[in-house]
């Protein structure tokens, strides 16, 4: 395949994609000829990630690197306004669902209370299910790809019509570490070729952390939405204590998905947290202990640090 026209680093602000950016800026990885950093904003990232992105943008400006944040869409607004706008479809996160055998006659608005009562009186646990994951594709990957095409059009007069772009025109760098090789995949977009520089350099997760320590760089938080399906109770407890704006956004989202029966999800109630406890009720209950099953939740897109 011919050489890429441009190289784009997918920068979620997570530990590994940010390490890649630092390596380029510090000259530990040779900066490709045409190099740009891509980021997306689903509207409800961890506030610490927003701060890290702000600093990364400044760092790039100092190094003469363009840093683009895709202008939308906004997952947070779409979810919070989903019922009031009468939306019929949302590219939703894979939120959790609850089912109790034999309780199909309970109206959905009463189901949460029913589950709570059942849990406390008889210890019966609901069957946990999960919606399909659609958020990353629309709100992160497609948003960044669109911003990339607009950037190439403006800066290099490259057509922004996808089918006119030659295969491998864009090389996209993803920050998977060497011990995450199994998460790699081929690009499903012809004009984009994926590359995994940390794996090529033999950096596993521990070595990436070592890079931060050796260079005195602060290690950032996981790059996930405040109300991501993958967040555990510890995470929410810390958020509630230290980041009230993130916390209220997460609660708003959970309150919105509680009404998704009005959008047509009529078989089961939907929850942000795998604990099937509404976020608004968590502080009163002292948050509780994380379910180890959450550790097996991953996103292989390279755009969410899960
Ligand atoms: S961080 Fe979680 S909620 Fe946000 S886009 Fe990724 S998978 Fe979806």
Note down, in words, how this protein is organized.
The chain has 306 residues and is of the alpha/beta class. Helices cover 37% and strands 10% of the residues. The chain is built from ten helices and eight strands. It has a five-stranded parallel sheet with strand order 3-2-1-6-7, sandwiched between helices. Strand 1, helix 1 and strand 2 form a beta-alpha-beta unit. Helix 8 crosses helix 9. The longest helix has 22 residues. The chain is globular. The mean pLDDT is 92. Bound molecules: iron/sulfur cluster. The site of iron/sulfur cluster (SF4) has 12 residues, from helix 5. The site of iron/sulfur cluster has 12 residues, from helix 5.
How are the SSEs placed, and which strands pair?
Blueprint: E1 6-10, H1 15-25, E2 35-39, H2 47-63, E3 66-69, H3 75-80, E4 96-99, H4 108-122, E5 127-130, H5 135-156, E6 170-173, E7 192-195, H6 197-200, H7 205-215, H8 233-242, H9 244-257, E8 270-271, H10 282-285
Parallel strand pairs: 1-2, 1-6, 2-3, 6-7
Antiparallel strand pairs: 4-5, 4-8
Helix pairs in contact: 8-9
